[in-house]
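Justification of resources, computational component.

The compute hours requested in this renewal are based largely on the per-chain cost of generating structure records like the one below. Each record pairs the submitted sequence with a full structure-token output. That output is archived, and it is also reused by downstream analysis tasks.
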Amino acid sequence: MIEGIIVDAGHGGIDSGAVGNNLLEKDLNLQAAQYMYNRLKELGIPAKMTRDNDEYLPKDERVRRIKNLYNNSPNTILVSNHINAGNGEGAEVVYSLKNNSTLADLVLNNIGEQGQIKRKTYQRRLPENPNLDYYYILRETGNTEPILVEYGFIDNKNDSYKLKNNLNNYVEGVVKAITEYIGYPYTPPYNNEVKDYYIVEKGDTLYSISRRYNIPVDEIKRINNLTSNTLSIGQKLYFTETNKNIYIVQSGDTLYSISRKFNIPVAELKELNNLITNDIYKGQELIIVEKQEEPITNDSYDVYEVVKGDSLWAIANRYGIRVNDLIELNNLNDLTISIGQKLLVPKKNIDENIYIVEKGDTLWSVSRKNNITVQELKELNNLTNNTISIGQVLKIK
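The structure output for this chain reads:
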């Protein structure tokens, strides 16, 4: 019979833990711990916290509290909440050398069901004494059954976005795993009883997802504008019409390719999402207002006339799109262009902060054209001499 769950929020106070993408590990750890504690109490499962505010806990004090919370009882589970670093992606669970992987496996699988990538469950040994656990939170916490949960990587863009938006969902997965492990009835939180989206995992098919959520395959395809049955890991599928105006950026996406897919100009996409550059990343949510009744025409683009020294690469760079996008937009057969040729380019998307070097340009002539000194040009572009080449991109602001 379980006596209680000890909920630990790693780091705290002057110890920020890992840092990345404007996030502090200590804050996310506390958020996770508070959510976990409240949910366990809602379910009627005894639980206590090591810290419930931004408090610094030296190692010895943290261990002392853990041992004292339930009198060092062997009928307690310790969950230490952490965020990883090191540019990986996904969740990991570390378990003690004195225990098997059952609880850790349950935790990782349930976090995975909430949409996070599952990396591994594992044990780690102290190099100077392989009989001891590497992490003190597993090694020195008495008779408890401890696990250390890493919900994602704070220095990974995809994970940091997920941690900001989905951390409570991942913690809910841990709560569910605990109830399964101790044989306690689980009831989902009220606002999570009906999920309006699902994040595709390895092995998923439209058929398996439709069976799980009792929604016809054709309905899932209609809501998500799918033209085939092909899915990709990490893809977000909506089950209601409510969120159709949100698109999750997939690997290989550009603002241009998304604009073509949803019939909305790049400039409008940027305005809707308060973007100041063309940079987007996998997993990013973009607001989409699809214009079925007003499909994109040539009026949605500017016309650029090719001048001497131009190349597709230089023009694509100037307008913030890929060369392949430029080729597709203009139905070109190859990379060949000619002086005077007119090309469609994204409207109002030109970067006024750069200049593409043309044939005959020198640093002096570029400086004159753009009202900037040669020395400023060299400093902005880290140039050590006056040599420039056709097609080279120069910062001018």
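Residues 290-298 have pLDDT under 50 and may be disordered. The longest strand covers residues 76-84.
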